[in-house]
Write a structure and sequence with these properties.
It contains twelve helices and eleven strands. The chain has helices at residues 3-14, 52-62, 113-123, 168-183, 208-214, 234-247, 264-275, 286-291, 315-319, 327-338, 343-346, 355-368; strands at 42-46, 66-71, 84-87, 104-107, 129-133, 188-193, 196-197, 218-222, 232-233, 251-255, 280-284. The longest helix is centred in the middle third of the chain and has 16 residues, at 168-183. The radius of gyration is 21 Å and the shape is globular. It starts with a helix and ends with a helix. The chain binds NADP nicotinamide-adenine-dinucleotide phosphate.
């Protein structure tokens, strides 16, 4: 497995690590008129207090559903004081879920097939629908066009439980398989998000770009403005998740902005527009980046071996009703959220170039192109 792919897998995983979230928790009750057939669901979320979970909780409550959580009570345990928490561990401690009843379950925290199998087996007789949050990293080969029918990665030894950059994707693929076999395809939704971004993101992979732009001056941008990128705004993922629960939409869905609809140049324009910065971009070539072993978040070499990673086909989810907000809104809200964070969180981004490395690279680039 090459370094770029490993980095993507690894950072995807790190994106879900337990680091304090900056997500707001206010809840406003939805005012949309509801169809007569509408009824509130009792939703169990396995997880719920990291990055994506709080957005799902908020959206479900906003629509009038009831939510309960299952987690260890370690990550942001004060986030939802009014929500019933079943304390337990996916690793052999599901006791607090026994005897419970819910309409549907959202599994955000499944990385190990055995854990997912255990929860799916326990909950299959109780819930009518199981939604598993997977990842685009399940696919085995990003050199070819990707849709939901593309082959997923595999592990030589399926008993492996250690989640690393290398095993993350194939383990998630196995988790999907276990849910399907325990619950059945007709009652299962599998969502495969690409880079999830927006307010509360702990990885800074997307945030790096507008945040760095906000700091102004000359900024290094990779490749060309026409290079494709893909993201999914966490709020669009949350909306689609709750839509799938309400409609019992079964199936496997890549969740990402439409292929070809978002480019590095637009990310730059979004970043400038929402920060009113004096940043001036310097686009450096992929050859230069390769020569200096520079990895940058979200961007991929369009001619490299992961060329299809950022042009994944998301049309199936779109046809099922997934809506992607304008990327400028994501940029605006990411920056607004970032500006509310404490200084110790914002002194450095968790992804992207350090100021020193960026200055060094820009000087080298200028020298080469003098
Ligand atoms: N970030 C990305 O760009 C990206 C991209 C694609 C897919 N994904 C997927 O998104 C999901 C993660 O999102 P998230 O972390 O933001 O979800 P989340 O639901 O907001 O947070 C994760 C939750 O899992 C709980 N948890 C962790 N380990 C547990 C355990 N052993 N037993 C019980 N509960 C446990 C944590 O609470 P405690 O620590 O208190 O237990 C926390 O509530 C993963 O499925 C990941 O593969 C992420």
């Amino acid at each position: 497995m090459n370094n770029t792919r490993r980095r993507f897998l690894k950072t995807s995983l790190l994106g879900s690590a337990a680091i304090a979230t900056g997500c707001t928790t206010e809840v406003s009750v939805g005012e949309e008129p509801k169809a007569e057939s509408w009824h509130p669901l009792k939703i169990l979320i396995l997880g719920g207090t990291g990055f994506i979970g709080p957005h799902m909780v908020k959206e479900a409550l906003r629509r009038g559903h009831e939510v309960e959580l299952f987690n260890r009570g370690r990550t942001d345990s004060q986030l939802f004081p009014d929500i019933k928490l079943h304390v337990g561990d996916r690793n052999n401690d599901l006791g607090s879920l026994e005897g419970g009843n819910w309409d549907v379950v959202v599994d955000n925290s499944g990385y190990v097939p055995r854990h997912v199998e255990d929860s799916a087996r326990l909950l299959a007789p109780v819930v009518s629908h199981y939604l598993y949050i997977s990842t685009i990293s399940v696919y085995g080969d990003f050199s070819r066009p990707i849709n939901e029918d593309t082959a997923v990665g595999t592990l030589e030894d399926e008993s492996v439980e250690e989640v690393t950059g290398e095993t993350y994707g194939p383990l998630k693929a196995l988790c999907e398989k276990r849910v399907l076999s325990e619950v059945g395809a007709d009652r299962t939704t599998i969502l495969r998000p690409t880079y999830i971004c927006g307010p509360g993101d702990r990885t800074d992979r997307y945030s790096y770009w507008p945040v760095r732009t906000m700091r102004g001056r000359e900024m290094l941008w990779p490749g060309t403005p026409g290079d494709d990128i893909q993201i999914i705004d966490v709020r669009d993922l949350a909306n689609f998740t709750i839509d799938c629960l309400e409609k019992k939409t079964a199936g496997v869905f890549n969740t990402c902005t439409p292929s070809g609809s978002f480019k590095m140049g637009e990310l730059l324009e979004d970043s400038l527009a929402v920060t009113a910065s004096d940043m001036s971009p310097t686009w450096v070539s992929t050859e230069f980046l390769k020569e200096h072993e520079v990895m940058l978040p979200i961007w991929e070499d369009p001619h490299g071996e992961n060329s299809q990673l950022l042009t994944v086909d998301g049309s199936r989810a779109a046809a099922a009703g997934m809506h992607c907000r304008p990327t400028r809104e994501t940029a605006r809200d990411t920056v607004s959220w970032w500006n509310t964070l404490p200084a110790e969180r914002t002194t450095a981004t968790r992804a992207g170039l350090t100021p020193e490395r960026e200055a060094e690279l820009l000087a080298l680039w200028a020298e080469q192109n003098a």
